[in-house]
Amino acid sequence: MTQMDSLLAEADLLYSMDDINQALDKLAEAIERDYAELNPVMLCVMNGAVMTAGHLLPRLPFRLELDYIHASRYGDKTVGGELVWQSQPSIDINDRHVVLIEDIYDQGLTLAALREFCKEAGAVSVRCVCLFDKLREDKVGPLPEYLGLTVPDRYVFGFGMDVAGYWRNLPAVYAMKDS
Questions:
Q1: What is the pTM of this model?
Q2: Spelled out in words, what is the top-level CATH class assigned to the domain 3-175?
Q3: What does the pLDDT look like over 23-65, one tens digit per residue?
Q4: What distance lies between CA 112 and its chain's CA centroid?
């Protein structure tokens, strides 16, 4: 058994795929209510939100454009550091309504920087959907407008979120034992 296999075997299951699907249905209803007539640009925050975007977008039966943005504070670490920009959107977001699709609302530093980037690029509005909301006391910036499920203040992984590059592919969310 590898170290990654042991990590998963010892982790606590927080949410199953059924739980995640129910949360995605609720998020999609709220987003459709607010954006069905606005032709938004949905910006998937890489890499963690790929799973969220892939499961959320088919639930949105209206006209939209999809692009991605990539900025991270984690890299291959389990503790956030300096924000590193990897990629900016190729779609012009000037005079557009933007919805950032994020995997987890942790401390909020990355999200605050992404919101500021979009505003400076001329977005009419910038809102955020986060599938997971980590229960922390030290959050900064405005809350995401669309929040799904809460997770404890532990290192979580699965459904797009990784541990040292692994386990993004899991159809569930787990918390590490020693976090």
A1: 0.91
A2: alpha beta
A3: 999 999 999 999 999 999 999 998 889 999 999 999 999 999 9
A4: 13
Q: What is the DSSP string of the chain?
A: --HHHHHHHHSEEEE-HHHHHHHHHHHHHHHHHHHTTT-PEEEEETTTTHHHHHHHGGG--S--EEEEEEEES-TT-SS--S-EEEE--SS--TT-EEEEEEEEESSSHHHHHHHHHHHHTT-SEEEEEEEEEE--S---SPPPSEEEEEE-SS-EEBTTB-BTTB-TT-SSEEE-TT-
Domain spans, the chain:
3-175
Q: Active site includes 106?
A: yes
Catalytic residue among 106, 153, 162, 178: 106
